Amino acid sequence: MVEGKGNKLEGAAAVDPRLLVRESGIRGYLEDFRRRLRGGDLGALPVAIGLVVIWVTFYSLNENFLAPQNLSNLSLQIAATGTISVGIVLVLLLGEIDLSVGSVSGLTSAILAVLNVNQGMSATASILAALAAGAVVGAVHGFFFSRVGVPSFVVTLAGLIGWQGLQLYVLGKEGTINLPYEGGVASLTHTFFPPVVGYAIGAAIVAAYALLDVSASRRRAKAGLPTRPLSDTAIRAGLVAVAIFASVYVLNQAEGLPLALLIFVGFVAIFDWILRRTRYGRMIFAVGGNAEAARRAGIDVRLVRLSVYVLSSTMGAAGGVLAASRLFAVNQSSGGNNELLNAIAAAVIGGTSLFGGRGNTYSALLGMLVIGSISNGMYLLQLDSSVQFMITGGVLLAAVVIDSLSRRGRQSSGRA
Description:
- By secondary structure, the chain is mainly α.
- It folds into two domains: 43-194 and 256-411, Orthogonal Bundle (ABC transporter involved in vitamin B12 uptake, BtuC), CATH 1.10.3470; 195-255, no CATH class.
- The chain is built from 17 helices and four strands.
- It has helices at residues 2-12, 17-22, 26-38, 45-61, 68-93, 101-118, 123-148, 152-171, 195-222, 230-252, 259-277, 279-289, 291-296, 301-327, 339-349, 362-380, 385-412; strands at 176-178, 192-193, 257-258, 329-331.
- A two-stranded antiparallel sheet has the order 1-4. A two-stranded antiparallel sheet has the order 2-3.
- The radius of gyration is 23 Å and the shape is globular.
């Protein structure tokens, strides 16, 4: 009798009770949010609050900060580095680092310019070649890290130096290659969709989000897992619609929805879907959470690590293409300056943990909004760049401190 009762209780507890709370409607989401806060899981709350404070502060000092034209400029400023940061998020989820993405973006943009301008190759073929070169570079990094066992810090530090040297070699003695103003490469960051097209794109994104949400609920139902009611999906889709259409409306007051911003946000959404909805994404989180446990579970840890570095360098190449497009040129400083530091800082500020296994690609978007807003606001106020560096460094330190305290809170509550 006792044994039967025990089996019954085990069957009732087969589904994690926290999932039941999370799936019990709007009230359940609020309760889940409070539970996460009590457990030290702050999510994107700190960066969201910080972003509001930054925007309110700069707007109070200069009303032009939230003007449509300035926000349009901000969206273009963050696209290239934000794209690079998406790849950095993937690497951080493994609990590793990639110090080479700045040099990779500079090298691949040089390859793009040489092929497109000097060799007369089409814009499309040149862009694909640049992305392929980025993938090859990532495969080299991944091989030495995952197969040979060289620490990722050392491998990518060597890449930072070596690929920068190769970039100078590719550019040649002139050191600068100008891209055609009306060329296909330049159009990536100088194309703006008219209002009607912008709203149509926004509607398509909202519809795709709703369909994916409904599809996920159906799959959960077939698997015998708790599902959200349709009212939850409607509310979530409604909130997404408000955010998207408000953004499109503001951008339409300037030049329209920028193609570069759409590309950046598209990368964020695609990789977020990969991380949350695919087996490969779950393997990345598993390896970042505990590589040995993942290995014993049958995951090819070395292959996952190699593939992530391929993706990271490919995203670095994509960011280099966008940067070259915006500046109409590639030179010896392309990919240098603060490109690498801002890409890493954006991922960390946005909420991706340095300890691995926790975060999402929306960290790149939120973090770049913070860094870009600080830079943009400082420029409007005509403040020295030294102040910008100090403030950005302080924000980065605060993000790491919050991450550390949050991790400690999760450990104390048994959720680390």
